[in-house]
Design goal:
It contains two helices and two strands; from the N terminus they run αβαβ. It is an alpha+beta fold and 44 residues long. Keywords: NADP, Oxidoreductase.
Length: 44
Amino acid sequence: NVWPAIAEGKVKPVVYKSFPLSEAVEAHRLIESSQHIGKILLLP
């Protein structure tokens, strides 16, 4: 189970790029393009 390792800070997700919620369409385009490695975040 990976959750304890994440909680302890031993494993961290790779964040590729963050977008404000107002740019959700652009974030979705990036996801669809498969040109990223890591997570795409939408921020409030």
